[in-house]
Sequence to fold (165 residues):
Amino acid sequence: MEKAMPAAKGLFLTPTMDGHVLEDGYYALMDAGRIKDIPYMLGTTKDDILVTPEMVEKGEFSELYQGCIAFSEKLEELGRKPAYVYYFTRNLPGDDFGAWHSSELWYMFGTLDRCWRPWEERDRELSARMLDCWVNFMKTGDPNGTGEQIWKPCTKETPEIFEFC
Fold:
């Protein structure tokens, strides 16, 4: 039987609304359209915060996953630049904890060699693909290269979620 990391009982950090940098709460700012009109890239992992083993088994997604889609749809509703949403599903080698919150960071920063895990060639290939997407996004606001578009923005009509596995 596969081990599972215990699910969090809620998020432990919340933003500080200081009336200067952050004038109001997240939902109020979203509803008022007071967010930057920039491209966004956001995502979650298969075994992320608030995900239980039962949810994974049933193919259910976390509130974070659903929130990424809702954020993308809100951007579209406001006529803003699109959001690109990813879902990281690669179970990290070396234990049975799966694709837990922040497990994609070694891949997206290209720091696999700074970790004890027994990486496979597929991990290095996945990291290279992710690095290409992140660099393209930083340069252009689009994670795709100059070739064929493979990662589409997440919209109401096409709620595309790009899977890294």
Summary: DSSP finds five helices and three strands in the chain. The longest strand covers residues 40-45. The CA atoms of residues 85 and 136 lie 15 Å apart.
